[in-house]
Amino acid sequence: MSEVTTATKNKKIPVISISRKIIQFLSFFVINYAILEWIFNADFSILDNYARVLPFLHSANSAWTQGAGLLEYSFYMIATGRIPYLFVGILGLLGLFSGRIFCGWVCPTGFMQDLFGGLGGDSRLSLEADQFLKKVKSFFLIVLLFLFTLILIFFKTDPDLHQQWLESLGSMAYNALEPISMSEFLFVTLPNIITTAVDNGGSLTGIFGGTFKTIIFVIYVLIIIASAVYPRFYCKYMCPYAATIKVFSNYSFLKLQRMPTRCPGRKECGVCEQICPMQIRILEEPFSGFTGDGECTLCLDCMQQCPHDAIKWKFGFN
């Protein structure tokens, strides 16, 4: 019976996957409307008013917006002596009411990783390595919060020391996520490197902007390679936005649940865990609703591939 059910399930048109790819593709071009301007030789600046502040953007100096994401604005406000109650509140509400659906369906960096992932396969790290590395993005965020909290304290207590810290941080003082933002790398740093190389007649001399930026470039090349082998590598282990919103999305109103009368468990099936790009141990999560400790991006691969139709939407905080 299980084999028949699985075969029938696999023959169905993957409506969810197709819909998600369409939404990701359209979102990518709407957010990156500079590409559309180049392709169609047209002016899409009207989109400025809609793409200026989006919670899934990580590039403060991007080609398509004069602004940045909510997290960048938050750190910028802290650096200039203000507490970003509004932006943190918006992030919290997004996480509580929509989980990480932006990560799974809209984020341009996530979309690029999905494209990379189609090139190199679907390998998995060991459970121990995965659980350890998922703490890395939270570590980055905690370090930044500690650093910028000090800057906020100095702003209130010692203006001269505050200014010295800002000067020592350089561009990071106003774009804190620059070194750890894949979006910054893909849509700002890399295009600038290519443009500079073209302007220099193909010469690579000085195009990286110093030793530190050269190291960052090499690291992100390695991350892209890793993303081609391990699904959503950056999302799982490095993304600062993911580290922030997972705190709230762990208690999200919007989540998935398993139907106990349909799910036979890991021994008899386990398909959901095998295909989950975030490597969530779904079968160890409560039947009543799961978020994978805030890691679930609601991509719905598990729902689509489940041969028993055991995974459904769950609405509610309990």
TrEMBL record:
The chain crosses the membrane at residues 21-40, 83-103, 138-155, 207-230. Residues 254-286, 287-316 form the 4Fe-4S ferredoxin-type domain. This is 4Fe-4S ferredoxin-type domain-containing protein. It comes from Candidatus Lokiarchaeum ossiferum. InterPro entries: 4Fe4S_Fe-S-bd, 4Fe4S_Fe_S_CS, Electron_Trans/Redox. Pfam families: Fer4_5. Keywords: 4Fe-4S, Electron transport, Iron, Iron-sulfur, Membrane, Metal-binding, Transmembrane, Transmembrane helix, Transport.
